[in-house]
Each structure stands twice: as C-alpha cells, then as structure tokens.
Amino acid sequence: MIFLKTDEEIELMREANRLVGMTLGEMAKHIKPGVTPAQLDKIAKEFIQDHGARPSFLGYKGAPGAVDFPGAICASVNEQVVHGFPTDYVLKDGDIISVDCGTEKNGFCGDSAYTFCVGEVAEDVKALLRATKEALYKGIEKAVDGNRIGDIGDAVQTYCEKRGYSVVRELVGHGIGRKMHEAPEVPNYGRRGTGPLLKKGMCIAIEPMINMGSKNVVFESDGWTIRTRDRKPSAHFEHTVAIRQGKADILSTFEFVEAVLGNNAI
Question: Which prosthetic group or cofactor does it need (predicted)?
C-alpha cells in the first residue's frame, strides 16, 4: 500500500533527511587512507544519537537466517554494491566507499547515500561516480506528479547505459515514510509510461546502483553484502524526494558533503 504524506509530514521527513545529510558531511571529514569503516560507523552512530535521532539501519532485520544489520551505516567498498558491513578493513589510497545512512526522527525516516573517493582515485572510477550521481538527478527530474515509476528507471538506465555502464537489477529504490522501506519499489531501469502512477504526497528514495562492468552481482555469505560478480567497481548515490507537481522536492541533501570536500566533491 502506498501512503501519501501531508505537507506537515513531509516537513518532518525533511528534518530526518537533513540529519542524514549532516551525517554524510561528518563522514566526509574522516574518510581518508588509514581509516576503517568501523571507525566511521562509530562516528555516525554517535552523531545521529547526539542530534536526537535513531540510526534506522542499526538492528534492521534482513533475510531469514541473516543477522540483524550490525551498523548505523552501510559501508560498501570498491566492488561492493550496497549493504556492506562497517568492518575493520583499512581504507587505502584509490579506494571508493559508498556510505548509505538512515535516521528515524519524530516518527519519520530519512535515507541518503554518497560514494566517496579515498585519496587519489583512478580517473575511470571517478567517471563512474560522476555518471551515477548525474543519473540520480536525471531520475529525480522524472519524479513528478502524473509520471510513472518507469519514467524514473528509464531515465537512469538510459543515461548510464549510453556511457557504457550497467544497472544492477536485483536492488531497487523504495517508498519511505514512517518506515524505512515502503511501497512502491523504484527500479533504476524500466520503460517510460509503465509502473505505479506518481502522485503528490508520495515520498520515495531514488538510488542508482551502477557498475563499471557487468550488471551481475553476488550475495555474500553474511546475508547482506552484495558485490559485483566481476569484482569491478560499483557506485551508489541516493536521495529521498517528495512528489510534487512540476518538480520533485529533494528532502535529503549533499550540501554538507560538498561543503567539506569543496572542489574535490564528485
């Protein structure tokens, strides 16, 4: 069931999403060679709690047989697509890391992700990151009242595939509100004019997951981490948006990341 939000509820969601953006900005201060995802997770957890919210990923229940998610952030490095555990892996020069973060504040959820460069990263990998971020905004342009979910997926898919990248099929964006994951699913591929109708008051998380090589992925034995089958890099950017007439309302923000990274931002 798709839940439409009132203007007042959307403003509460904006607060939760702004905190996610602030947390990603805090991550930007610390991501460098020698740091571990586990250290980043500790910083994120404390930052979110200090701002009166709950890290909504922490303890999230996964598939049957999998452990509850152990971190406040998903930290996915290099060929890991999404849902990476915040481990003791030591980040090194040339790595990339997707930090996906969620908060729950005032009864509503926020969700956003940014893929960071660690030190000096190869130009072809930076190009993948730029294309993925640009594809996110191409999808957002289609997230308006009267369009359909397929319009978003078509925009993302067309933009990335024209540049030689592939779109992950097994993982999609989602509705969001009082729960982190609500209907509808929001694929990053599809056909224009298909899928659920977008209506004012819907809130969705659009999150392109784009691979440098094949679209095929592997689910690791931990029940969470997903990586590319060919072990080539994957990038991931995400915004939460509210559907409006004429133009999508982006509730999350990269402004805090960009303020820290300056000219080094993707």
Answer: Co(2+); Zn(2+); Mn(2+); Fe(2+)
